[in-house]
Structure formats: structure tokens, C-alpha cells
Amino acid sequence: MIKFEEFKDVCQQSIEMIEAAGLLLTPEDKKKITAADFGLNHIKKEGVQILTMFQTDRIAGKILVLLPNQTEPEHWHPTVGNDPGKEEVIRAISGELYFYIPGENNMTQGFIVDGKEDCYTMRNEVVLNPGDQLVLPAGTKHWFQAGKKGAVMYSFSTTVTDLMDQFTDQNIVRDTIIEQEPSNSTY
Amino acid sequence: MIKFEEFKDVCQQSIEMIEAAGLLLTPEDKKKITAADFGLNHIKKEGVQILTMFQTDRIAGKILVLLPNQTEPEHWHPTVGNDPGKEEVIRAISGELYFYIPGENNMTQGFIVDGKEDCYTMRNEVVLNPGDQLVLPAGTKHWFQAGKKGAVMYSFSTTVTDLMDQFTDQNIVRDTIIEQEPSNSTY
């Protein structure tokens, strides 16, 4: 659950970060931005802002924004029916971005969300500077975090519904419920 | 066939146009830029510059550049084996960009390359301003052209080899042959 004012605030901050990174957004793009709190009720700690540029039956392109020190919870994209699972390519645009994937523990930049060691099990850190890319094959467990400047990145992927994502944190609810959303909201 | 000096020149111009559009390129990105003359031997008239950001077995992301008034020849992405054919999403970044797809003739901005009416049969014009997007389902015949400022765009797609593309112009050879390329070229 997230209050509408907070939802609006994190979306607006994210739009400003995208534009500060030099990307051009149309008015239609800006209306499409949304935020996910994963049902954990503290979006600025665990959450992500998502602007879907396009999504067809086959491919999707999104801009993801992490606010300073915001963390996207650990998850993976499983096989769904005949689909081998969502493959995702991340391209960092601006800010400080740390990805955590399978491999040896080499964490030096990021941090584990307080008291949630069991929900963040991947500890192989990949630092993505602006322009750097990371391919996440289907099924790869991953989480990511911004440094103190926040981070803007592209996510390009095959299309499957994000509602099929699997999370390490069993308290997660993928659908974001917005409290007190005015009926005339453009968000 | 294209002379190495001309190849280097169109690639360098394209890198400058991409950077002028505000996109950040890494040194590795810049090395990956290439140009296609489609075997027609006049790249500044018919041709395109391509910077492949990523290409996996499933998805690809490229930056395409058209120089002022440069035209990419009409083509389509056919079904290949079990693949239904390459689906492509274009997102305009900067400049003046005109796409031609199936539909009624409503051309007002672009032009048909001199004497090549038979090679440019699609005449339904879609003007893409920066931030505008166009989805090209598999099999859609299309060609595109820049106005006098040139154009920079993203192309996101499913992956199939471009060497399978079909062209209306039967003189086209998809492989670009570069004359006098020094062995130490980074292009």
C-alpha cells in the first residue's frame, strides 16, 4: 500500500532524474510512469519506478529509476508455458548502479536492506557505470540498488507479464495498491 | 563497395550526431559502429549507420543514424524457420525522420530516390518526431528517410540475422564490402 501523494512524489522525482540524464520524454511517456512498492510499504527503501516505452507481445523497453539508495528486491523471471522466461538486458544511463547476481560474494558498494539477509541472497556485485550493459538470461536471480545519487537505466526484454516474477521475499505482492488515488489521476 | 575513407567518414559523422542528441556512448560502443551501403555504392544517398548496443539470441538494441536526406532501402523481415520474423520497434531520438509503410499514399515530407520508383513501393508516410515510436510487426514492408537535419533513432527488435532481410531493390547486396580497409582499423 502506498499513499497517492507519495506515489506522485516518487514518480515526479523519477521523471526529473530521467530528464536530467538527457533523455527526451514525450508528455505521453510521462503519463505512463508508475511505481512499485512490492507490497512492502516503504517504497523509498524497497521499490522501483518504471516507465514503459513500449511493450508488444514479443519485446518490451522500459526506463527504470532507482531513487538514492533505493533497492529493487531480489527476483527472477521463470519459465512460463512455452516461454523460456524473460531475458533482460540492462543499460545504465546515469547515476550509481549495483547489480547482484549469482557468483562469489564480492560486495563492496551496496548494502543489504536492514534485517533482510534472507531476502537478498545474491552477493556477486556488478557495478554498472553509465553506458555499461548487463545481460540477465532467463531465470537469473537478481536484485539491484542505487548509490547515493540514484540511478536511471534502460531495461530491454522479451515480454512476459511481470506478475509472473518470482521473489525471494515471501512478503512481496507484485501489484502496487495506491491509497486515495483521485479518479482524475494521470498516473 | 565503399572506400574505407568514406566508411570512416560516415561512421564518425554518425557518432557525432548520436552524441549531439545527448546519448552517452562508451569507447566500446563507438568501436562497434558500422555502415551499410547495401551494395549500391552511394552510401550517402542509400545507406544507414548502425551501432549495435546489444544482441543476444533473443533480442537486439541498436542505434540507427541517417545522414541528411539519406534513405534506408525498402525491405522486410521474413519468417525464418520457426521464427515468425523480426519484429522491430523504432523510437525517434533526434532530427527529422519519415517512415513509409503499407497504406494509402500520403507522402508530403520525403522523396523517392531518383529513378527508383519500383524500389520504393510503400508510400504511407509516418513522421516520427523525437520521442515518437513505431511498431513494425514481422513481415511489414518499410523504408525510411531523414530530412535535411538527418535522424538518430533506436531500433529494438527480436533477433534474426539481418542477412535474411528481403529487399524490393534486386540490386541490393546486404553485406557491405569495404575497399582498402587498413588491417588495424577499429571500425
Outline:
The structure is a homodimer of 187-residue chains. With 187 residues, chain A is mainly beta. Chain A has helices at residues 4-20, 27-31, and strands at 2-3, 34-36, 48-55, 59-66, 71-76, 88-101, 124-128, 133-136, 142-158, 166-167, 178-179.
- Radius of gyration of chain A equals 16 Å
Q: CATH superfamily name of chain A?
A: Jelly Rolls
Under the CATH scheme, the architecture of chain A is Sandwich
List segments of chain A where confidence is low: pLDDT < 50 over at least 5 consecutive residues: none
Q: What would you call the structural class of chain A?
A: mainly beta
Separation of the first and last Cα atoms of chain A: 16 Å
Query: For the largest interface in this structure, which chains are involved and how many residues does each contribute?
Result: A-B, 26 and 26 residues
Oligomer: homodimer
- Anisotropy-based shape of chain A: globular
Strand content of chain A: 35-45%
CATH topology of chain A, what is it called? Answer: Jelly Rolls
Helical region count of chain A?
Answer: 2
Structure description:
The structure is a homodimer of 187-residue chains. With 187 residues, chain A is mainly beta. The first copy, chain A, has one domain (4-167): Jelly Rolls. Chain A contains two helices and eleven strands; from the N terminus they run E-H-H-E-E-E-E-E-E-E-E-E-E. The first copy, chain A, has helices at residues 4-20, 27-31, and strands at residues 2-3, 34-36, 48-55, 59-66, 71-76, 88-101, 124-128, 133-136, 142-158, 166-167, 178-179. In chain A, the strands form two sheets. In chain A, strands 2, 3, 4, 5, 6, 7, 8, 9 and 10 form a nine-stranded antiparallel β-sheet that branches. The radius of gyration of chain A is 16 Å and the shape is globular. The model of chain A has no long low-confidence stretch (mean pLDDT 91). Chain A binds chain B through residues 22-26, 29, 53-54, 56, 58-59, 61, 87, 89, 91, 93-94, 130-133, 135, 154, 156-158, and chain B through 22-26, 29, 53-54, 56, 58-59, 61, 87, 89, 91, 93-94, 130-133, 135, 154, 156-158. Chains A, B: One of its GO terms (molecular function) is D-lyxose ketol-isomerase activity. Chains A, B: Its cofactor is Mn(2+). Chains A, B: This is D-lyxose ketol-isomerase.
